[in-house]
Amino acid sequence: MAVQQNKKSRSRKGMRRAHDRVPMPAVIFCSCGEPTLPHSICPACGSYKGRKIVEDKVKED
Q1: 27, 8 in Cβ contact below 8 A?
Q2: Cα-flanking dihedrals φ and ψ of residue 52, to 5°?
Q3: Which residues lie below 8 Å from residue 22, measured CB to CB, with a gap of 6+?
Q4: Is residue 48 assigned to a domain?
Q5: Is 12 among the domain residues?
Q6: Range of the domain at 31
Q7: DSSP letters of 2-38?
Q8: How many structural domains is the chain composed of?
Q9: Domain for residue 2, yes or no?
Q10: pLDDT per position in the chain (61 positions), as tens?
Q11: Side-chain half-sphere of 25: how many Cα atoms within 13 Å?
Q12: Is there a domain that residue 34 lies in?
């Protein structure tokens, strides 16, 4: 098992960890005003690039 020989400074540790963060997902706002992921259908209204892709489900009683 490997054991470090010299202590890593706070600066070096911080520089190494600078890229370990989790990136924030990109969010766009649909024409209906709901936030959604880019290049995907809006889960609220079912539209993509201004066109209706998914039709609303009609409940049958």
Answers
A1: no
A2: -75, 120
A3: none
A4: yes
A5: no
A6: 25-54
A7: ---SSPPPHHHHHHHHTT-SPPPPP-EE-TTS-EE-T
A8: 1
A9: no
A10: 899 999 999 999 999 999 999 999 999 999 899 999 999 999 888 899 888 888 876 666 6
A11: 7
A12: yes
